[in-house]
Specification:
about 170 residues, mainly alpha, 7 helices
Amino acid sequence: MAAPRHVPLSPTEDSNIYQSPDVVPSSWVNRRPGDIESFQPSGGSMGHQGPDQGYALRLCRNFRERLHISEHEHLSDVERGCVQIALKRASMFGRAPVVHDLEMAYRVWGFLDAAADAELVTHRSRLFEGLAESHHYVDVRRLVETVPDTTLELSPSDLEEQYATDWSSLLELP
């Protein structure tokens, strides 16, 4: 490590330079008992893993003023369901969530549409009810499965266009 200029150095003393170690350690190998030997499990009740997923909760705050929620819906339920959909989309692309993931999750359910179709509002009110409560995990997973991968693979502009023409084609409703 370099010394500050005010520290006296002997001109005859060798300065510290990098030297390779005598023994080079072998490369790391996955041998611990708890390590996963293959890819992270996903799908079904396992959810969808990805990096930095908590950032989606921060992104939710940016949408609160833009959301159109009916009187029978709660913001906490809507946010929990849409965050999970956004995380599924982000994990499909192997990255952390971005604003477009949340925008698409809100759009596909009509939360960004002031004049959302009454049938869509009926479906979403039923599916999003109580999701903010922790014991509704199975219901959250069921909601996420209603949005197929083909919908999540669309670009935000394509999704917006398809939502305007036929919102029901974006979902697999029970």
